[in-house]
Known about the structure:
Elements: E1 10-18, E2 21-28, E3 33-38
Antiparallel strand pairs: 1-2, 2-3
Amino acid sequence: YDGSTTKREVDPYGLICRFNNWYLIGFCREKQNRRVFLLDHIQRLKVKENSVISLPADFSLRDI
């Protein structure tokens, strides 16, 4: 993490806590891949109304 900011559109799959840090797991539309985002690094969040997210059949937070 270099401190720079980027704007991302993410389809959220869930939140997990590891080693006293919270993470957002989701599909990053820019990278076209599943990504992990440290919540402490998220500066601004906008939730789109009427959004429907479909989790992939092979996804489980237990596997993260």
